[in-house]
Amino acid sequence: MAFNLKNRSQLTLRDCRHQVSYVFISDAGNNMGDSLLIGGAKMDMDVGLCAPKACWPVQEIQDQAQAVASETGARIMITEDIDAAVKGVDFVYTDVWVSMGEAKEKWAERIKLLTPYQVNAELMAKIGNPRVRFMHCLPAFHNTETSVGADILAEFGLDAMEVTEEVFESSASIVFDQAENRLHTIKAVLVATLGA
Question: Per the database record, which ranges form the Aspartate/ornithine carbamoyltransferase Asp/Orn-binding domain (predicted)?
């Protein structure tokens, strides 16, 4: 699954720019963070991961990405500093703070840890790039219209988690273009594996 997510994300990134810089702001130690870090390094991109240290990739993944970057010329930044991470980037990417199948007890822990890293209008304004685009691999908890969103509001008082409705529905958002590219990636994997 990480292979698929990485490739569809890289396809969406390449659709929009020639020289690419992006930051992934979320639990950067999950499969998405790992895939975006190594995939971006392989494609000679400027890759940023921004999260609390407790949510950084394991050292082995960081070392692997740095080794690849030294061969390709990619630049990698892993930081807790939101302002430094987002300055001038072309893309801001986030993901859910709690992955499918994780225990409900993780919610409170992750919300406390990651709320300062929410992608919202204030964060987008810090970027300083009027052409910045927002990405998310979906599903997103950007409002209270789902049962999960309603539960989060009731239990934690948040009307959004990793991204606000304002950013998710903005003209900067390319989440549905990204989802479309996922379809093409899946078809390519099926063709390759089924020998069609």
Answer: 19-192
Structural domain includes residue 65: yes
Please enumerate in sequence order all residues whose Cβ is within 8 A of that of 25, keeping only pairs 6 or more positions apart, or say none: 50, 51, 82, 85, 86, 92, 93, 94, 117, 119, 123
Question: Across the chain, what does the average pLDDT equal?
Answer: 91
**Are the C-beta atoms of residues 142 and 170 closer than 8 Å to each other?**
no
3-state helix, strand, coil in the chain (%, to 5): 55, 15, 35
Q: Is residue 106 part of a domain?
A: yes
Q: Is residue 6 part of a domain?
A: no
Split into its structural domains, the chain has a count of 1
Domain assignment present for 4: no
